[in-house]
Design goal:
The chain is an alpha+beta fold. 31% of the residues lie in helices and 30% in strands. It has 5 helices and 7 strands. It has a 7-stranded mixed β-sheet with strand order 1-2-3-4-5-7-6, sandwiched between helices.
Length: 183
Amino acid sequence: MGVGMNSPAAAMTLEVVPFTPDHLEPLVEALLRVRAADPTYPPPHDAQPTAEAFAGWLMSEEVLGRWVAVADGIPVGHISITAAHPYLRNAFALLDYPAAAENGFCEVSKFFTDPVYQGLGVGSALFCPALAAGRAAGFHPALAVIGTSLAARTFYAAKGLREVGSFTGIHGLNYVFAEDIAS
């Protein structure tokens, strides 16, 4: 199927830039569209899908880095890297999967693409530089994804992460992904 002249990909200019406060409002609008398309994202999925709640969720933690995909001047995707959350560190300990980096694991966090722009390379444009930044800071990139998100699991595997196990968390079954330590 070809790209129509009115589709977002028609001559789209895409760049990945560091997050600034000016990005927050359009990213929250994108998150509202993400929630409408997928009732399980962003967690907590039982939170009210309001701009205020999603802005709070997006900005709720200290990050090692935060990037935004901008398509033709419009923020359409987000990714951050954090120190690994305790639930993920605990999962790796139970799985006996050691970090192959000096600073331990970092976690891909709050990663999303506006549904209007999904399938157009936005996620890949965000993902690869974020992982590179985590590695450059001395971390081993990893993440957990809820079991209902087959598309996310497929994406991470295609990007070279290995599914190393699973655990049951507050949002149900989670699959744990990490860069392969043999790589």
